[in-house]
Amino acid sequence: MVTAIIHGFILAIGLILPLGAQNVFIFNQGANQPKYRYVLPAIITAGLSDSLLIIIAVVGVSIIIMSLPVLQAIIYIVGLIFLMYMAWTIWHDKPSTDGEAQIISPMKQVSFALSVSLLNPHAILDTIGVIGSSAALYSGSNKIAFTIACISVSWLWFFLLAILGKM
């Protein structure tokens, strides 16, 4: 069981550390929100989304998705459209003229965190492809330990990112 925990922990660290849309969003919320507690909607949404993706991957959905080329292509196309939309909105977003950071509402935090978590092709490929196939090595309590380790790293990382944003 210790091997499964260490494997899940190290694998999840390697997958979550690269700064993608989700990590940058959480970091920015940590930096822009006046109090740490105002970042919690974004952290909780990102954590729950990652937990959901990890659990789906571990229970075997990755095997189904990776064996159906049409479904795989749909995921890639949706991810491409999402990334193009994100690039377009960022490119055309007008910076604030007063020099103040933009504070967004909890509902906007939740909706944006959901989009960068569940529509992000990087997150989907990491969880469904890498974590799902790695979880196939384990069964029973070892698989549960592996899953909990992966989920724990995800949650810890989001809290840490928000704290680092505050510094």
Automatic annotation (TrEMBL):
Keyword 4Fe-4S attributed: no
One Gene Ontology molecular-function label: amino acid transmembrane transporter activity
GO cellular component entries: plasma membrane
Cell membrane as UniProt keyword: yes
Record's bilayer topology term: Multi-pass membrane protein
Top-level lineage group: Bacteria
Transmembrane segments annotated in the record for this chain: 6-26, 38-65, 71-91, 144-164
Protein name: Amino acid transporter
Main localisation: membrane
Organism: Staphylococcus aureus
The organism's taxonomic lineage, starting at the top: Bacteria, Bacillati, Bacillota, Bacilli, Bacillales
Keywords linked to the UniProt accession: Cell membrane, Membrane, Transmembrane, Transmembrane helix
Subcellular location: Cell membrane
